[in-house]
Amino acid sequence: MLSGFNSATLTASSIKGYIMATKAKTKAGRVAERKTSRPQSPNRKKETQAASPSAIDLLEQDHREVEEWFDEYDELKDDDDRKAELAQKICSALKVHAQIEEEIFYPQARATTKDNGLIDEAVVEHGTVKNLIGEIESMKVGEDLYDAKIRVLGEMVKQHIKEEEEELFPELEPTKIDLEAFGKELAERKQELMSEMQA
């Protein structure tokens, strides 16, 4: 039985209100958890204050941005124009993010950490994400399974982000790799790819 309700006052409306409030609390909790899940080490705080973000900071900024777009999409009901706009932003951002990771980040992370298994899994996950993006881009908002594909994409990406931030990034932080120079290289390539997409 739902706490705070007795059988005499239990109506469809009250159950729906309770579920919606619980869902909102859960979603707010996930957002707060993401923002605090990885405390910054003293070295990373210094890097954040530098002119250009470190490689890890840049990738985490991308992660937060796309997570916010997925959360906003989840909250939309009948706004097809906004859904289409968000889906396009999500797909474009993920394609650029995956490409800079595959071209620059993963090869250097592989050489530095020697954690081939973790990076191999990340590359396979990228392939799956790219396939789903291709399916989404060939559809229109409102088609059968469109919203479901966006939700599944969001779940896959959020799991991928969690693994990167909790497993791979901590392996890189104590190494001698120059995360600021690495971040500058990632930022420059990201800008190139975004310009190509907009051309």
Structure, briefly:
This protein is mainly α and 199 residues long. It has helices at 12-36, 42-49, 55-75, 80-113, 116-137, 146-172, 179-198.
Question: Count of helical segments?
Answer: 7
The largest sheet, given as strand count, sense and whether it forms a barrel, is: none
Task: Give the ordered list of helices and strands.
Answer: HHHHHHH
Mean pLDDT: 81
Quick tags:
disordered N terminus; mainly alpha; 199 residues; 7 helices
Describe, in plain words, how this protein is organized in 3D.
- The protein has 199 residues and is mainly α.
- The chain has one domain (51-198).
- Helices cover 79% and strands 0% of the residues.
- It is built from seven helices and no strands.
- The chain has helices at 12-36, 42-49, 55-75, 80-113, 116-137, 146-172, 179-198.
- Helix 3 (55-75) runs antiparallel to helix 4 and helix 4 packs antiparallel against helix 7 (179-198).
- The N and C termini lie far apart (57 Å).
- Residues 1-32 and 34-50 have low confidence and may be disordered.
